[in-house]
UniProtKB/TrEMBL annotation:
Keywords: DNA-binding. The lineage of its organism: Bacteria, Pseudomonadati, Pseudomonadota, Gammaproteobacteria, Nevskiales. It comes from the Bacteria. This is DNA-binding protein. One of its GO terms (molecular function) is DNA binding.
Length: 84
């Protein structure tokens, strides 16, 4: 049998929705509701019936969304100016 630790195989520890929500200060329903995960594009894993997350992937997801936010604001501002 292989005695390789699971963290070496996966690269990092997978955590559940509650631990993820606490670590990243996210609403728990974003993580537990499939419709919200799809809408937000949250990276996640199914391990059997269990739902798990990698913190590094979620941190990258959050940084990507923050980088897009100024661009979204500029588009909204341009649309508002066009309406006037």
């Amino acid at each position: 049998m292989n005695d390789t630790p699971l963290t070496q195989v996966l690269g990092e520890r997978l955590i559940d929705a509650r631990e993820t929500a606490l670590a990243l200060n996210l609403p728990l329903y974003w993580l537990t509701h499939a419709k919200e995960r799809r809408r937000l594009g949250l990276p996640h894993y199914r391990v059997g019936k269990l739902l798990r997350f990698k913190l590094s992937e979620l941190i990258a997801w959050m940084e990507e969304r923050q980088a897009l936010r100024p661009a979204d604001a500029a588009l909204k501002e341009a649309a508002d100016v066009g309406l006037q």
